[in-house]
Structure to design on (172 residues):
């Protein structure tokens, strides 16, 4: 694999970090979301910028998995190698997108929402609920990516439920 492509599938080398390379690969989207919110470019004030940047990250790293997944598996000598964390980077964007206003009402609700998005994604990525475990057997880059996208959608459900139901209850 050429170095630029290797950098993308390992999320600029985060896939080589130990322990828990998938956790390291999941960090850039929550950090990006936090920075955008702090800069006043959050999903309420500037939804096109906020969601657009997260969507761009999702697409770039998803395409890296799909295009270079086979090569990465050959390079690292196993199916869905731990060094390939572009799938985590892509899918972690999903629970951070389309956050409702209530999730950002205070600094602590914003921080709690981002932290929950990160933790929920990691839990679902690790336990791989149906159909994630089964779909992971898909060959090549699609197999590397699809189980993480499913984990991202499950995490999105948790984050949205927290924002719509738990935060208002906590604030009242």
């Amino acid at each position: 694999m050429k170095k630029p492509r290797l950098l993308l599938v390992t999320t600029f080398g985060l896939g080589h970090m130990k322990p828990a390379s998938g956790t390291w690969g999941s960090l850039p989207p929550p950090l990006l979301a936090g920075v955008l919110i702090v800069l006043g470019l959050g999903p309420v004030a500037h939804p096109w910028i906020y969601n657009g940047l997260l969507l761009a990250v999702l697409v770039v790293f998803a395409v890296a998995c799909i295009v270079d997944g086979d090569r990465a598996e050959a390079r690292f000598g196993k199916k869905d190698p731990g060094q390939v964390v572009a799938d985590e980077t892509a899918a972690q964007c999903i629970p951070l997108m389309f956050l409702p206003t209530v999730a950002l009402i205070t600094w602590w609700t914003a921080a709690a929402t981002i932290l929950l998005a990160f933790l929920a994604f990691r839990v679902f990525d690790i336990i791989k609920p149906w159909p994630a475990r089964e779909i992971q057997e898909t060959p090549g880059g699609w197999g590397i990516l699809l189980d993480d996208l499913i984990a991202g959608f499950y995490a999105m459900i948790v984050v949205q439920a927290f924002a719509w139901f738990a935060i208002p209850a906590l604030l009242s």
Notes: The chain is about 70% helix and 0% strand. The first helix runs from residue 3 to 9. The chain has one domain: 3-171.
